[in-house]
Amino acid sequence: MVTLQGQQIYLRALEPEDLEFLYQVENDETIWEVSNTQTPYSKFLIRQYLENAHQDIYEAKQLRLAICKKDTDEAVGLIDLFDFDPKNRRAGVGILIQNEPDRNKGFGGEALGLVIDYAFQQLQLHQLFANIGTDNQPSLTLFTTFGFEKVGVKKDWNFTHNSFKDEALFQLIKK
After folding, report:
1. In a designed cystine with 173, which of 112, 127, 136, 156 is the match (CB 3.0 to 4.6 A)?
2. Beta strand segments in the chain, E
3. What positions does the domain N-acetyltransferase occupy (predicted)?
4. Is the pLDDT of residue 165 over 50?
5. Per-residue pLDDT, 2
6. What are the structural domains of the chain?
7. Cβ-count burial of 165 within 10 angstroms (0-12 exposed, 13-18 middle, 19+ buried)?
8. Over pLDDT 70: what percentage of the chain?
9. CA gap 56, 59 in Å, rounded
């Protein structure tokens, strides 16, 4: 896959060298709520995942890309196309910037813009969707800035921290 370039960041396919970064992301309990994770992942399982990361989106029905700073090549997050459905020409999109100091610097916005362009131009998708907790204001702002529209709310959808939380469904339909 061609590297997708932004002003501050670029997106690239996962590499075997990303093992430690993915291990940290997948085992960071503070972000389990947004990543829908409930248990830690071993390095063994992540290594197996990386060995299969070469599959294209048509095989895996998912595409996970590392978000990297241009100036340092450091991976700061991940952006995923998931539930890829070529027949109906749609996919879900999820984004994560791992560390708090790297958030609110425009990395997520650049990554989302690049993935939207890639999904609509290269993959010829008709729509993207996102599932966002109704209390996740940064993600709500990010996705609506890019034209995603809220089409519904799933009540008491996710159970976290001993309570149920609503999750909104957003769609971006190619004009």
Report:
1. 127
2. 4-5, 9-13, 63-69, 75-85, 90-97, 127-133, 149-160, 163-173
3. 9-169
4. yes
5. 47
6. 4-173 (3.40.630.30)
7. middle
8. 94
9. 6
